[in-house]
Amino acid sequence: MFSLSLSVMCASPALSDLSDLSRLYQTEFVRSARAVGVLWAVCTLCFAVIQVVILVQPAWIGTSDSPQPGGTLGLFQVCLDSGWPVPECRGGLSSLSPLPSFQSVAVLVCVSLWAVWTSVVCLCLFRFCSAATVYKICAWLQLSAGFCLALACVLFPDSWDNPEMKSLCGNTAGSFSLGRCSVHWAYILAILGILDYATLATLAFVLANRQDALICHRGNVIIKTPQGSRMKCVGINYGQIPTEA
Question: Which pTM value belongs to this model?
Fold first, then answer.
């Protein structure tokens, strides 16, 4: 009996150190994950706004420097420079009808826009659902948005053989041929958006996996010791003593 009590007393400092290590690791883990999560949410919101600009701006294609009257073209409008300060535009969002040749592209961009704004709305679910679940939902939505936007960017050059392009870029314009026009900033921004969606979705999956590693089985924590061996807390409270996994 005496030897058993002595062994328990000798082991108490080591067990206390492991408990403190568990609490310290959990605190740093949550703090870093929260900071990265806030950055991810801000970037998601910013690009959701940029996606609206990509959809509505008539700046996907524009004329290069030439003596002829210039202009720009988007999914919903074609604008030609005139003698007035404001260019003369045909089409627009008021009719909710894209240019006939770009209808499929506009639908894909709209689906992408819906997906990214749905992921923004899903940020409210952090108050009601586990963080890992919300991150995974948003990641799949962002992957879907990126896929639709990538498909739209691929189909867009194939739609250049249309009367609007020929009136703006000359008769040499056709599928995958810009004529006297060039790619403008809205189309470039859409291409960069594909990479942005891939990055945001990957980061969301990483954050979800970190949350899964942090909260396992009703609050248990898995940690790694400095020697690299995996440990796990066997109790519900974070103060429980880790045991070998």
Answer: 0.76
